[in-house]
Amino acid sequence: MAFESLTNRLNKAFRDITGKGKLTEKNMNDMLREVRMSLLEADVNYKVVKDFIDHVKEKALGADVMSSLNPSQMVVKIVHDEIVELLGTSEASINFKSSGITTIMMVGLQGTGKTTASAKIANVLKKKKARKPLLVACDIVRPAAIEQLKTLGNSIDVEVYSEGADVPALTQAKNAMEYAKANGYDTVLFDTAGRLHIDEELMQELADIKEAVQPDDILLTVDAMTGQDIVTVAQSFNEQLAVTGLVLTKLDGDSRGGGILSVRAITNVPVKFVGQGEKVDDLDIFYPDRMADRILG
Ligand code: GDP
């Protein structure tokens, strides 16, 4: 699971101070140094770490921790709250249109789990929000993507719209909207093409689809296993497309977790879902508080 070594290290830092009856300034500084090292070792962006430690110090001073009854518990709570702050304080959900068809565009680099996440989200919307979703296979570049989406769609009983790999993605996106209107769908999810790296052509294709379908949400899949790189990738996608939500994928893997801890803080795009496995049910709505609990172990 992601964050495992971060959790262990943070717990050690807290154990070192909870064992002590009274907290001195030195204990507190030692602990903050350990927290700082734990975050850096987990590959959290250095600027995010700096701000994090500054905030914790500020809050600890403001709360007059040293003279409180249980100083160490208080510090642990401050760190917990700051992690929640880092992850985004409120639960973010899909921007459903009040009437008409809600459109969701899935974007991300190849292999980050975009196709899988498209189906997972369609599944959640169908089961938990009683929506009638249509999946649209706009990734005509990766050879297996259309078939993969069809197989996934079949397994969750959600229709997949596709005109095959020879019709341009933009044409299919427009046609899919007509199809959705004619057939009573209320939510359309577009699984767009990815590449191994960001390039002009990809961004132009995505911008054209965006223009055509006017998405209510543009969700970017970010792979936890990629580490710090996901911050730069997310920044690029966000600058060019104005991303409205992040989907953190592969949290079941053994990543250090730093990339995903940094990405919300740096891009200021809320995390909406987390993917924790290859199966179609392995998706959760993102709750910052629960994730902070998990990180603190
Ligand atoms: P795409 O190229 O972005 O559409 O990526 P895919 O959806 O095809 O996913 C790439 C690989 O990652 C596939 O083998 C998926 O089964 C796998 N995958 C996707 N999401 C997760 C996840 O949350 N956890 C794990 N362990 N694997 C995932």
From TrEMBL:
Keywords: Cytoplasm, GTP-binding, Hydrolase, Nucleotide-binding, Ribonucleoprotein, RNA-binding, Signal recognition particle. GTP binds at residues 108-115, 191-195, 249-252. Residues 2-87 form the Signal recognition particle SRP54 helical bundle domain. It is found in: Cytoplasm. It comes from the Bacteria. Residues 100-297 form the AAA+ ATPase domain. GO terms for molecular function: 7S RNA binding; GTP binding; GTPase activity. Residues 101-297 form the SRP54-type proteins GTP-binding domain. GO terms for cellular component: signal recognition particle. It catalyses: GTP + H2O = GDP + phosphate + H(+). Its EC number is 3.6.5.4. GO terms for biological process: SRP-dependent cotranslational protein targeting to membrane. Involved in targeting and insertion of nascent membrane proteins into the cytoplasmic membrane. Binds to the hydrophobic signal sequence of the ribosome-nascent chain (RNC) as it emerges from the ribosomes. The SRP-RNC complex is then targeted to the cytoplasmic membrane where it interacts with the SRP receptor FtsY. Belongs to the GTP-binding SRP family. SRP54 subfamily. Part of the signal recognition particle protein translocation system, which is composed of SRP and FtsY. Composed of three domains: the N-terminal N domain, which is responsible for interactions with the ribosome, the central G domain, which binds GTP, and the C-terminal M domain, which binds the RNA and the signal sequence of the RNC. This is Signal recognition particle protein. It comes from Dielma fastidiosa. The lineage of its organism: Bacteria, Bacillati, Bacillota, Erysipelotrichia, Erysipelotrichales. The gene is ffh. The chain holds residues 1 to 297 of 461 of the full protein.
